[in-house]
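debug: dumping io for the single-chain case to check the tokenizer round-trip. Nothing else runs in this session.
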Amino acid sequence: MCRHIPPLSLMWNCWMFIRTMRRANAILLILSVFAALLLGACKRYKNDVPSYPVQMEMNLLQYPYVTRLVYGGSFQTVSITLYREYYLRHTFVNETIDVLRSEGSYVGYAGMLVWSDINNEFHACDLCCPHCLDRDMPVQVDGQLAICPKCGEEFNLALGYATPTKGITRQPLRPFQIRYSNHILSIRN
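debug: decoded output
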């Protein structure tokens, strides 16, 4: 007998107990059991992309971010990857800039994607595709989509969640915690 299905005698006893209770109490009991089953059935979200250290501070009033990431009501992105161990390569829409890596800056497993949506809210996630997990082939940004060059998975960045829109994966790109205060963007995992 399956351990997950209660025996019929237990179910019959529960039914008889419910019949003897007042109707309001019975409905409350049924709803609470249903809620407990729902909460117990939920699994915690797990992302297959390995968790690597992420720690970065970006002053949006300084080079190279000023006027590139904050553009008032339009969609802007920057991909940040480690380049030759001591540099961070910043890839904006039209240009690539290498900046000396400051001590204590970490950009995740395959790099970091930072973007501001049309409401000027900031978001950040790892550049590694959760389907193929290849850190040497980070996703590429094309408009409001992040596309994996290896497997073709597409992720929609427009709403800030990097959710999959094309392909077989159900996982979004691994999100990072982001805090914005006094023109300083702090990104952590």
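debug: round-trip ok. Residues 8-41 form one domain.
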